[in-house]
Amino acid sequence: MGSSSGARDGTDSLASEPQSQLQRGVRVVGKIRPFVDSEAGGSSCRARVSVTRFVGDHALVAFDDQQTCRKDSYKLDWCYEQDENIDQIFTAEVKPLIEGLFRGHNGCVIAYGAPGSGKSQLIQGSGQNPGLVMIALGEILAFANENRGSVTVSCYEVSQDHIYDLLEPKDQEVLILEDAAKRIQLKGLSQIPVNSISDFKKLSFHGCNMGKSWLKLPDDRTVRSHRGLIVYLSSVDKESNSSLIGKINFVCLADYEDIKQKGNPRPQLAESTKINKSLYTLLNIVCALNAGENFIPFRESKLTRLLQDFLCKASRAVLITCLNPTICQDTLSAVNLASRSCQVANRHRCHSAKVTKSGSKFNQSCSPSIVGIPVRAVSQKKNEISQCASAEKKGYGTPYAIRRRSLQLGSLGTCFSEKQKTGFPSAIRKKKMPIGSSPPNKSESRKESCESVGPNCVENIMPTGGDCYTNEDTFVQDTVVGLGCDEKMTADPIDGTKDEIHKIFVNEDQSSPPLSARLREISNSLKLLSTQTTAIGSPNTDMTSTKQINKEKLDPKTPEVPFAVRLENEPNFDYIGSPQDIFKTRSTGLKKYLAQECLTFLNSANKEELKGLKGIGEKRATYILQLREESSEPFKNMDDLKEIGLSRKQINAMMSQVLGDF
Ligand SMILES: Nc1ncnc2c1ncn2[C@@H]1O[C@H](COP(=O)(O)OP(=O)(O)OP(=O)(O)O)[C@@H](O)[C@H]1O
């Protein structure tokens, strides 16, 4: 196996968009771990990982499984390759945070990834290879010495949603309190003064391997946990002579394990579920921060509450997704989740929103569509989940809704798979795009992305019906290059119809409005569609003739007017027939779409929203949330709803409730 770097940056790899340019949000980058001895035969491995980088914009991490011919690409804000060392990551990602610390700002460095992906190595390092903490601490101590500052450190563990002090362990867990200024105070977490690196090395970390590694658990400990080290810097601002206090948190998250893939025995399954729940919550918050949302649900887990001060607006943070160089489901799932929360995805989303507001009608339809994540069928694990549910009831914690809406619905597609080409609305099917021509300016960066990616990106990127989202870039490119966009659509007599169809099939509001709002929009589109459909083929269409044809449509004796409707690359709408035929066909598509929307809603709504639906009460809503803790998308088709005891009649009632009257 070879980890090939298809870098297109043509420059030093660290020429990524620097942290200093990012005023808020969390930067999400990747780091591919080098091969270890046990992977010595790596070059013959069936899976290949490659990175394609676009300076100042983003990176695409592609996993190419030669055995299954599966290709998946994930977009991140940046990605560091196997041969790039921790010093380089420090310089590009962490140093700007440290500089903020010197000015009294907070910072956060989070390592996240699958088992064995290199998280500990990155944060803590080993032997001759210091990790990010050591390098950062060296700089902070040097600054403190020069500026009459002082440095203290705390070390904590978040296990099963409880926080423990690792430096001065106590019986009681650490409490999270909020002071009058709304700052988080960690009551019970000790702060130990550190004057030098050797002071730090002498610290004893409780419950950690050999008393030295504060990240590695002793072999006899099976419960996984998140661990973090906070470095506090108190200094005096030379100009104002005021005291400054900044802190930086280095967090090593527990391994992300794709529990669907594992035949875990129940205790481990429950533990993994809890860990994943807190990881989802954190990534959801990253996503919300990057999307610029006003409400950030920090309170949803202890981990995110603890990190609130480090992730809030005044702070700067980077999430480093550690990646195994060999393909494994855990790594794919981890990078998939990270990719959905990254800034580049949300930045494009904002761009899309701007286009929607200021651009042509057709541009409104250029937003990406969202497809669900493949998950185990509900039925497969129903019993297991029920058991977990009863365990929860017995006092192991009350299940609560994880707001994964942003992750599942809100972010723009960042993953592409060649394998899965079916089951996706044809309206967003891609066309081959011209390669090579460079965009004139940054504002066309989306166009640039596609053109630069070349065959790997353009031809291989296909929207999926499974675990991947489609990509805004390619779709915009498609429409711009392929259609000539605005002018063509304006001149096209069916432009309104096409526009509406795009609206219907394309999830244009990435912030995922409530289902009722979406359905209202669709029903409006339907009304419009029926009107416009009858107008097609009528060369001198005006209001009178439209009304006339509407009347004729209802009259069975009216002779059919043959006409062709061709919507580019949309087989569903590419036929010749009567308005009735067209309407019928479209209605079928809409029904499917409505069903999909309904499933999406059930896969993402919170408890109160769920209870707002007919047929879903407290118990069923709780059960749905439990299913969602097990799997990110438990409902893949309408039959899955039967698994939660809903009859066809109830499902229909539920859908008509949200659809309302026409
Ligand atoms: N940058 C690196 N250079 C050399 N070896 C590395 C690097 N990163 C990781 N490794 C090696 O990869 C292996 C796994 O790394 P590490 O233990 O840091 O992963 P992890 O994600 O913390 O694992 P886990 O949390 O599952 O214990 C180790 O043998 C480590 O030495």
Automatic annotation (TrEMBL):
Xref: PROSITE patterns: KINESIN_MOTOR_2 (PS50067)
Keywords assigned by UniProt, alphabetized: ATP-binding, Microtubule, Motor protein, Nucleotide-binding
Domain Kinesin motor: 25-344
InterPro entries given in the database record: Kinesin-like_fam, Kinesin_motor_dom, Kinesin_motor_dom_sf, P-loop_NTPase, RuvA_2-like
Highest taxon listed in the record's lineage: Eukaryota
Gene3D superfamilies given in the database record: AF1531-like domain, Kinesin motor domain
Any one annotated GO CC term: microtubule
SMART domains named in the record: KISc (SM00129)
GO biological process, one term: microtubule-based movement
One example GO MF annotation: microtubule binding
Binding of ATP, residues: 113-120
UniProt KW Cytoplasm keyword: no
Polar residues composition-biased segments: 13-22
Positions of region (Disordered): 1-22, 424-452
Family: Belongs to the TRAFAC class myosin-kinesin ATPase superfamily. Kinesin family. KIN-10 subfamily.
Name of the protein in question: Kinesin motor domain-containing protein
